[in-house]
Amino acid sequence: MIDGISIYDLLTLTTILFFIGVYGFITRKNLISILISVELILNASVVNFVVINKYLYPDMLQGVYFSIFIIAVAAAETALAVSIIISLYRQINSVEVKDTEVMKY
Amino acid sequence: MEKIIFYILALIMIGAAIASVSSRKMLRSVIYLLFTLIGVAGIFFLIDYNFLAAVELTVYAGGIIVLMIFSVLLVHHIEMKLEVAKLSKRILVAGACIIGAGVFLSVIYSYDFNEHGVAITTTTAEIGYGLLNFEAGGFILPFEVISVLLLAAMIGAIIIAKGKKLESNTDDPK
């Protein structure tokens, strides 16, 4: 735990990060930008898990395991999303959301 | 001292996050995301989880950012500016986000967390023993599931990114 910093300060920081991610997710019109916003949201949740583990239950490690799993799932998700974006760009020459029609079925 | 470092990190993270969702150049917004991730790793170092900070730096800052830079360079002209949403829509979404953040913060600040005063340093060995522990409270099953998931995601990514070439190869009689 950090001297002089309460859990409220850290939770405020992650809340702000989370909502910046939500803002980007809604307003951006590009697939890669949306992916970046999703990464911001995931990072805010990872910091939340770790901080709550450290401040409220310092003798356990459950929050650390969950954050490791979140990081692994985020890595898998990014790899898949990047491959989908590249294959989509080959077919329709664009990564804008409004041009993405071949995936609708 | 740690307090000052925390506030500097928080300012860098929030500034970089805002820049990364509002920058009109693709590559710059990925680099701003990198600064946010380094800030997250710094917070992990501050609260004494060195292993997690290393994982964050290698997997996120080393892996995911490089993947994103690759995809930006493969699909995008660097000079091209992104189109942004209408101003009215942006203001509406920003207002909704601020209201949501207000609701979250009011709930957080009204709850009385009872903080443990003790600071315990965890070693990497303890994390490893917990992950591979198959008794009650152990995490071996999700650990194995994650490994299978990563393998499936890798194979899926290769097959999707390869596209039609793979199918036409299998159709050819030899």
Essential attributes:
heterodimer; A: 105 residues; mainly alpha; Helix Hairpins; 74% helix; B: 174 residues; globular
Chain pair forming the biggest interface: A-B, 73 and 81 residues
What's the overall average pLDDT of chain A, rounded? Answer: 88
Q: Indicate the CATH architecture of chain A.
A: Orthogonal Bundle
Largest sheet of chain B: none
Task: Give the C-level CATH assignment of chain A.
Answer: Mainly Alpha
Overall body shape of chain B? globular
Q: What count of structural domains of chain A?
A: 1
Query: How would you describe the shape of chain A?
Result: elongated
Alpha-beta classification of chain B: mainly alpha
Main sheet attributes: strand count, strand direction, barrel closure of chain A: none
**Cα distance spanning the termini of chain A:** 50 Å
Compute the number of helices of chain A.
3
Rg of chain A (CA only): 17 Å
Could you name the CATH topology of chain A? Answer: Helix Hairpins
Number of helices of chain B: 7
Strand content of chain A: under 5%
Tell me about this structure.
The complex is a heterodimer of chains A (105) and B (174). Helix content of chain A is 74%, strand content 0%. Chain A has 3 helices and no strands. In chain A, helix 1 packs antiparallel against helix 2 and helix 2 packs antiparallel against helix 3. The radius of gyration of chain A is 17 Å and the shape is elongated. The mean pLDDT of chain A is 88. The termini of chain B are far apart. In chain B, 21% of the residues are buried. The model of chain B has no long low-confidence stretch (mean pLDDT 85). Chains A and B meet through helix 1, helix 2 and helix 3 of A and helix 1, helix 2, helix 3, helix 4 and helix 5 of B.
